[in-house]
Amino acid sequence: MSETNPLKRAADKVADALQSGPTGPEDGIPGKPGAESPSVAEPTEPREPLPPKPDQGGPATVSPTGQPTGADQARTAQSGSYLTDAQGVRRYDTDHSLKAGPRGPVLLQDHHLREKVMHFDHERIPERVVHARGAGAHGVFRSYGTAANVTKAAFLAEDVETPVFVRFSTVLGSRGSADTVRDTRGFATKFYTSEGVFDLVGNNIPVFFIQDAIKFPDVIHAGKPHPDREIPQAQSAHDTFWDFVTLHTEATHHTLWNMSDRGIPRSYRTMEGFGVHTFRLVNAAGETTLVKFHWKPRLGVHSLVWEEAQIAGGVDPDFHRRDLYDAIEAGAHPEWEFGIQTFPDTPDQTFEGIDLLDPTNIVPEELAPVQPIGLLTLNRNPTNFFAETEQVAFHVGHLVPGIDITDDPLLAGRLFSYLDTQITRLGGPNFPQIPINRPQAPVNDMLRDGFHQTAVHRGVAPYRPNSLDGGCPFTAGADMGAYIETPVRVPEAAKVREAPESFGDHYSQPRRFWLSMSPVEREHIIGAYTFELAKCYEQAIKERALQTLANIDPELCAGVAAGLGLPAPEPTEPLADVEPSPALSQVGRIWPADGRIIGIITGPDGDLDGVRAVRQEVLAGGMVPLVVAPAGGTLGDGDDALTVQRTYATARSVEFDALLVAGTPGVGADAYGARDAKAGRPTVQQATPDPRVGLLLAEAYRHGKAIGATSGGQSALEAVGIPLDAPGVVTGDTASAVLQQLTGLLGGHRVWERFPSAA
């Protein structure tokens, strides 16, 4: 990770915002109204649609063949003030079917009804079989130039900026599932480079369940809901998943990562990304290097605790996508450093005894450090979820000169699978012409016709060789930037359905991961295995899973066995002798506080001047302040009135990274059980704090979050049993003084001392 002062970067962002135009008290707060407001009454005169918010933007306006059109993004969708049909014919009514009299039957000849209903019936395309639940954003990638010695890829030259679109996703759930389930996350990036599109289609876990793509249908069928009852949704806590992974032990490493805190990220902004496979880079001299790709979040890797994930899944199933969109709107732009681990391109394609073609393996960063080669910044939200996030089509075979594949058997299968997926979902072979998928480089491919062909081609000879079109298009040589596959020598061998002997070690890498975890992370892993296996019905599956865990580590096996009420078996093979990799742990490092969400709890009688001041300090520090009060609206009067972003009824602790109680919080008028069960008492005649404030504070304390209070708010902490001298609890006379200490605590993500460990 490169050294950067996060507070200076945050201050620079604020300065840039001040230079770009006037700002108001709500600038930097997500969810604020747009620049223009709609009228309360239905408009009677045509007007332009409300403009997009400053954080929004669509795909670049290029033609189906990649030519810049110069068109204004705002004019590429609907235009004109009057309703038309799909052919541009104006319609005088769209509220009533054509009938034989006002009470008569609807007439078959109503072609406007037919068109409108037909299109509505087909608004939904088939959702992705995997990665159906996702969220995306636009951004820019700036190369440092540090990879120029190992690859000739133009977008990795020094200071080159490349537009990108990134989609994050869960694997197992449907489009309507929750964000915070325990699952692998997709991290797919589309680079619109000057040489064509490059897609890096990765995950937040660096290994996969299987070593060969022929097993992909098996692992997904096992992980998906049971086919008889279609439950559970978006979860691996059921018999079929554990039946598969305990019989197919090459899945052990990925399963262990999934059961760790990596399986429940705090946000997409604090999630690592990995290319999973080993790729081959080629430089200008034709020299090759094997690499693994990494995305390192600038905010550090951070996860939810299991109770937070469960709460968020209930109160806000859109937790992760909301966090992403809100951060971009607030100007707290998510950032990741792009990095590579490099290895000599030797004939055996191994490094330090690790098979680089086995996608269930990692190479510890202590053996091959991750070298930063560029910075990804997401700075624009989509303007239309369907047109952009839902229709974006990634493919591991979208490569550019300087980046090539290896013989990883899982990667080979993906090269076939992705095209089939896009044709099924997006209606035909012309999905690259959908605006979000269009390359921003000239296209002359000789591909013609097919469903949804929107390019109007010229010429009569889409074949080679030809003379009728002047011989065009000509092929290009290496000196003209052509993509040329690396001439790797293929060994003489018989055709077999086998795996190499080196793919047979299924336990040493999981053991390294386990030994690299801190005590609290090990407790979370034990808890996750216990929860998931307790959801299984079949006793044999639980016993088989314990045998797998025994071959990783006796402590892990014994902890899970105790939770299941079963005996811990002995290992069936010797425990691997491996060194821990400290880089795998999420605990023990300090990260920037940029973009963290600070809940400021107050009430009408609180220290509003102090709240105003600390709110500005939070913004200046590159963080996001959300004022939490008994009711919505504003606190105070006049120009200095404070807008309330969350009420006691709508706020839950999972949304905040830290809480600050500024003065004595009031009691809401809705603080009784019939209206809000969280209040928990039958009348509003109760002592402060409001029970929902107590719930907020108690949950945040239990989940290891930093908590602060001014002198007027300390009683609220004491009322719910939070010791003022406990680790991570900060008190002071002013909110500003408290905030300074809270900001320091945020660098560690959580107050880990609050989590007791059996160790």
TrEMBL record:
<feature type="active site">
    <location>
        <position position="131"/>
    </location>
</feature>
<dbReference type="GO" id="GO:0004096">
    <property type="term" value="F:catalase activity"/>
</dbReference>
<keyword id="KW-0376">Hydrogen peroxide</keyword>
<dbReference type="GO" id="GO:0046872">
    <property type="term" value="F:metal ion binding"/>
</dbReference>
<dbReference type="InterPro" id="IPR018028">
    <property type="entry name" value="Catalase"/>
</dbReference>
<keyword id="KW-0575">Peroxidase</keyword>
<dbReference type="InterPro" id="IPR002226">
    <property type="entry name" value="Catalase_haem_BS"/>
</dbReference>
<dbReference type="GO" id="GO:0006979">
    <property type="term" value="P:response to oxidative stress"/>
</dbReference>
<dbReference type="InterPro" id="IPR041399">
    <property type="entry name" value="Catalase_large_C"/>
</dbReference>
<keyword id="KW-0408">Iron</keyword>
<dbReference type="Pfam" id="PF00199">
    <property type="entry name" value="Catalase"/>
</dbReference>
<comment type="function">
    <text>Decomposes hydrogen peroxide into water and oxygen; serves to protect cells from the toxic effects of hydrogen peroxide.</text>
</comment>
<feature type="binding site">
    <location>
        <position position="167"/>
    </location>
    <ligand>
        <name>heme</name>
    </ligand>
</feature>
<dbReference type="InterPro" id="IPR043156">
    <property type="entry name" value="Catalase_clade2_helical"/>
</dbReference>
<dbReference type="GO" id="GO:0020037">
    <property type="term" value="F:heme binding"/>
</dbReference>
<dbReference type="Pfam" id="PF18011">
    <property type="entry name" value="Catalase_C"/>
</dbReference>
<dbReference type="InterPro" id="IPR020835">
    <property type="entry name" value="Catalase_sf"/>
</dbReference>
<feature type="cross-link" description="3'-histidyl-3-tyrosine (His-Tyr)">
    <location>
        <begin position="395"/>
        <end position="418"/>
    </location>
</feature>
<comment type="similarity">
    <text>Belongs to the catalase family. HPII subfamily.</text>
</comment>
<feature type="binding site">
    <location>
        <position position="128"/>
    </location>
    <ligand>
        <name>heme</name>
    </ligand>
</feature>
<keyword id="KW-0479">Metal-binding</keyword>
<feature type="binding site">
    <location>
        <position position="216"/>
    </location>
    <ligand>
        <name>heme</name>
    </ligand>
</feature>
<feature type="binding site">
    <location>
        <position position="425"/>
    </location>
    <ligand>
        <name>heme</name>
    </ligand>
</feature>
<dbReference type="InterPro" id="IPR011614">
    <property type="entry name" value="Catalase_core"/>
</dbReference>
<keyword id="KW-0349">Heme</keyword>
<feature type="region of interest" description="Disordered">
    <location>
        <begin position="1"/>
        <end position="89"/>
    </location>
</feature>
<keyword id="KW-0560">Oxidoreductase</keyword>
<feature type="binding site">
    <location>
        <position position="414"/>
    </location>
    <ligand>
        <name>heme</name>
    </ligand>
</feature>
<feature type="compositionally biased region" description="Polar residues">
    <location>
        <begin position="62"/>
        <end position="84"/>
    </location>
</feature>
<feature type="binding site" description="axial binding residue">
    <location>
        <position position="418"/>
    </location>
    <ligand>
        <name>heme</name>
    </ligand>
</feature>
<dbReference type="InterPro" id="IPR024708">
    <property type="entry name" value="Catalase_AS"/>
</dbReference>
<dbReference type="Pfam" id="PF06628">
    <property type="entry name" value="Catalase-rel"/>
</dbReference>
<dbReference type="GO" id="GO:0042744">
    <property type="term" value="P:hydrogen peroxide catabolic process"/>
</dbReference>
<feature type="domain" description="Catalase core">
    <location>
        <begin position="84"/>
        <end position="472"/>
    </location>
</feature>
<dbReference type="InterPro" id="IPR029062">
    <property type="entry name" value="Class_I_gatase-like"/>
</dbReference>
<dbReference type="GO" id="GO:0005829">
    <property type="term" value="C:cytosol"/>
</dbReference>
<dbReference type="InterPro" id="IPR024712">
    <property type="entry name" value="Catalase_clade2"/>
</dbReference>
<dbReference type="InterPro" id="IPR010582">
    <property type="entry name" value="Catalase_immune_responsive"/>
</dbReference>
<feature type="active site">
    <location>
        <position position="203"/>
    </location>
</feature>
<protein>
    <recommendedName>
        <fullName>Catalase</fullName>
        <ecNumber>1.11.1.6</ecNumber>
    </recommendedName>
</protein>
